[in-house]
Structure formats: structure tokens, C-alpha cells
Design goal:
FAD/NAD(P)-binding domain; six-stranded mixed beta sheet; globular; 3 domains; FAD-dep_OxRdtase; 371 residues; D-Amino Acid Oxidase, Chain A, domain 2
Length: 371
Amino acid sequence: MGTSDVLVVGGGVMGCGIALRLRQAGARVTVLERSIPGAEASSAAAGILAPQWESEGPGPFFELCLRSRALYGQFATELRELSGVDIAYRPCGLLRVAFDEADHHHVESTVGWQHGMGLRAVLLDGKGARELEPRLSPEAVGAAHFPDDHQVDNRLLVRALTMAAARVGATFRSGYVRGIVHEQGRAVGVDLDGEVLRADAVVLAAGSWSSLVQGSGVAAQAVRPARGQMVQLQTRLPLLERIVTSAKGYLVPRADGRVIAGSTMEHVGYDKQVTAAGLARILDMALQLCPELGSAPVMETWAGFRPWTQDALPYIGAGPVPGLFLATGHFRNGILLTPITAKLVAQAVLGEKPSVDLTPFRYDRGAMARG
């Protein structure tokens, strides 16, 4: 595509990652963000890179997540070299804890099918789990250990991606995108606060707001906000080495003693309030996993919106009209899927053959399945 113009709607990790890859390929790129780049879901996440923990089973989405996780080590190095920001990529592993026999059987099943795929996963009894994490609750009856599930500091990732994209020449503009501009059946730009910006391609990476962009072809309920409330605790020394999760939520220990605890999943529209009930559920989960956190001060609480889709799959690749491309609906896996989505969408925009079959992630997959 050479030096053709591309407009990227959305300045979170998806938008900035796509802008970085397109600019590196020689395209002129402008990122359009209505506030500070990365101020929404990208900054409100926990930075978990855990396809093995998150997955319900094998399939194209699981494979996509594994591919993206495999990119993260080099991705972190590249971003540090481009931006000077270390995103705190930690190959720490993850412990999925069970507190009753039924949940332990579920964990055992997960370990079984992942072993069948040649992935590293270890089933532990309660004693074995506490040998790995001594501060784990004595009530834990067992766990699955996923040593290849990792973490990053997502706020540092946002900063690094924004700086990297800017450093290679992407430009940023703030404003309200009123809609995608169409001419003769193709996307030719966007309306930014009444000003028409023209481009050869438009990438929609607006997260939970994607359905609100007029002319995007994304149905009103196709991508919806799912509120996730979060709590940050502080310990003098880290109590946990690994990410620790249960059926109720997760604890993400940072190297400096912070612990990110989350999260709720609520369909409440665009209401970003932190609620007493939400915090109570998160703190109850945290103390069940690690009782010693009871004395840890609460340093921060927040809520963010995850872009939810009905089938829990993202929209990646060509959109409903020529010149329009989609990168949205990543729900709980936005941070994890940033490297692979940036690569695939850049390939699509540049007219290259995507390195992954994007058919399962098409905007019209529902209609294709019904047909």
C-alpha cells in the first residue's frame, strides 16, 4: 500500500499497536482518540497474558491467543528499544486454584485436554499448590499450574506503545469521531468534530465504543461494554510469585508489592462507577485465595469497560465495506491479543495475506454460520 493514508479510530493498545505496525511498513498513520491515548480499557486491565487459564477449550481463538502470547517476549524487547519504557513483562506462571472437589475436577479436565495439545500444565493437590505459593489459603484443595502464562504491567504497555508509535512517525489527534465517511460504497475517511479527514483506509479500534461509531457497520449490540471493577492492594514485600486465580477472580502480584485484584463482569451500559457490592466480591475473593492480604491497605479502586461480544470472539480484519477494517471486541483478552491483532490488521490493510485465517473473526460470522 506504500505511503497511503490510514486513520485509526481508537488510541488504546489495539489502535497504537496497529499504528506502529502500519507506520513501520511505510504507511502514513493518524490515530484518533477522544481523550488521552489508552485511558479506557487498556489502562484499566490487569495485564494477564494467560490463554491457558482463560480458555474453555481448543479452537481457532485459543490458537490465536497462544500465538500472541508467544510474541510477547520479543514484543517487550522491541517496545523497550523504541520507547525506553520497560513494560514489566514477567514470565511468572499462573496457578488456577480450586476450593471444592467439583471445581478440582474441572481444573483436572482443563489440564487433560491441554496436555493432549502438548502444552505445559500441571495438576496439583492442595499441598503441592502451597509448596509453590506458601501464602495460599489452607482451604485450597488443589490447583492447575500453567507455567507459560505470564503478565505485563498494562499501564506501562499503554505508555510504551503510544511512545513507540509516535517515535516511528504516527500522529495523534484528539476529538469526537462522529462517524465513518462513505463514498461510492467504500470508506474514505471519518468525520472528526465536523471536519472530514480523508484516508485510503480506516481502522476501527474503539473498544466498547465501536458500535457507537456511525457508519462502521457494527450492529448496535454487536460490541457492548462489560464493566469490570478492580482493586489495588499494597504489600511491603510480594506475598505471591505467580498470578493466582479461582472461579471467582484473580490476583496479579507486581514485583514492587502491588497486588491487582479483580474483577466483576457487569452489563450496566456505560456506567463506570465502582460499587460497594463489586468491591465486596473482589475482596472476598482475594482473602479466600490469600488470607494474609487482610492487612494490606487498599491503594486504588477503578472500573473499566471490556468490549464484549455475544460469542466471546473479537472482530479482526476486513469490515463490511472496502477500505474499512475492524479490530475490536477482544473482551478480557485485549492486552494478550495486542501483538497478534496489530500484525494481522496491518497485513489486511496493506493487502497482504494474513498469517492467520481470519474467517472465525469476521464481522459477518454469525450470518455465515446461519447460511
